[in-house]
Amino acid sequence: MKTTAPNATTAKATTPKARTTTPNATAPKSAPSRSAPSKSAKPKTSKTSRTTKSSGTSRTSKPPKPESHLAMVRRARRINRELAEVYPYAHPELDFRNPFELLVATVLSAQTTDLRVNQTTPALFAAYPTPEDMAAAVPEEMEEIIRPTGFFRAKTKSLLGLSAALRDNFGGEVPGRLEDLVTLPGVGRKTANVVLGNAFGVPGITVDTHFGRLVRRWKWTEEEDPVKVEADVAAIFPKSEWTMLSHRVVFHGRRICHSRKPACGACPIAPLCPSYGEGETDPEKARKLLKYEMGGYPGQRLSPPADYPGKPAPALGAE
What we know:
mainly alpha; globular; disordered N terminus
């Protein structure tokens, strides 16, 4: 049928302002199916695309272009700069006074909070201040001290083993090389990078639960394996940034970008986050989700750095 749709002449007779509306807006809803289809039902043409651009009334739009690798790298580096301004005091949240104490505390931190470790280690280091002392410990006595950290039998076995290895293979000193650290019982790449970055000043990326979760949420990587995550993120940032980047990301994950309900409405990097909206977007409700110093509560360290703006954590039994 060559006759035009009922609304075609109407569209020509209207004023320029009216032509910016959807072309079939005046067509009756009960128009016969055999009549010529309205323009909105036709495949999208270049002319229709120009009308859509000028009128802004089309209900369809082109899907956004995938983010290029270069754009992702630029966005990732900007997130790091923003986090550096939010958390200039970012630091390892385990209390320690030397490499041995940091190594032991990091092993104990598996499957528990840094706060619980910090509340437990004062008694542990008072009883076993050196690798030689810890290697000679009675297992049952050590288990009782570290029981609050959970998995205390397995952790006791690791601590006894790594202490003996330090005594026998490294002269009672914690080695400053990753390839040596990972030979110690209970020490993997994550623990080794924590010790290297914070006790020896050797740059390293620490892929813990918070770090892996956030970098996937930010689309820096799609990997689940910690070693692959470490490699992907290391390729984005200069080596000099690795250690502090780790602290900033973990700080943000613990305080704002929580696992189950991130505080999106209180997030300082929300405009850069491709996952914005997964959590609470209302600013007032989001602020109530903030933790530690961001929410006005104590942190995780009993002995935090001097520039830490929050309150020290309470000792064990004083919570």
